[in-house]
Amino acid sequence: MKLSELAKKPKLIELTISNPELVEKYGEELTFFMYDRQSLDIFTKLANATQDNIGEYMTILKDIIVNEDGKAVMDDEMVLPIDVLTEAMRLIGERLGK
Questions:
Q1: What does the DSSP 8-state code read for residue 73?
Q2: Are 63 and 72 in contact (CB under 8 A)?
Q3: CA-CA distances (angstroms) from residue 82 to 52, 64, 97?
Q4: Cβ(25)–Cβ(3) under 8 Å?
Q5: Is 83 helix (H, G, I), strand (E, B) or coil?
Q6: Which residues contact 36 (CB under 8 A, 6 or more apart)?
Q7: How far apart, in whole angstroms, are the C-alpha atoms of residue 88 and residue 2?
Q8: pLDDT per residue as tens digits for the range 14-67
Q9: pTM, entire model
C-alpha cells in the first residue's frame, strides 16, 4: 500500500458528553466536535505539556474543541465551565488514543 492512500483530509467527528452528573446539571447531553486527524504539531504539544502549566493544555484544547462548522468554541474571552472542559478532555484523550 502506498502512503498516499492513507493521507486524507481531516473530518469533523461529534463527541457527546453524557456523564450523568453533567446531564443533570446542564439539562441535556452536551456535544462538541473535533477533527478525526490531528496534526503532528498538536501531538507534540500534548506530549510536551506539563501539569505545572495548565495554560499549555488550554491552548491545545482551543485548537481541538470546535463546533459543527470547525470553528473554535473557546477563545481568549469564551471559556467552557471546568467540569465540562474536564470531561471533554477525557473524551478527546480516548479518541486520540485510538
A1: S
A2: yes
A3: 17, 16, 22
A4: no
A5: helix
A6: 10, 11, 12, 13
A7: 35
A8: 999 999 999 999 999 999 999 999 888 887 887 777 666 667 778 889 999 999
A9: 0.85
| Sequential DSSP letters for 33-67 | EEESS--HHHHHHHHH--TT-HHHHHHHHHHH-B-
CA-CA distance, 83 to 67, in Å (whole number)? Answer: 18
Strands 12-17, 30-35: pairing kind: antiparallel
Rounded-to-integer distance, Cα 49 and Cα 57, Å? 7
CB of 46 closer than 8 Å to CB of 60: yes
Q: Which residues pair with 31 in a beta bridge?
A: 16
Question: 54-64 and 40-48 helices cross at what angle (nearest 10)?
Answer: 160
- Beta carbons within 8 Å of 43's beta carbon, 6+ residues apart: 96
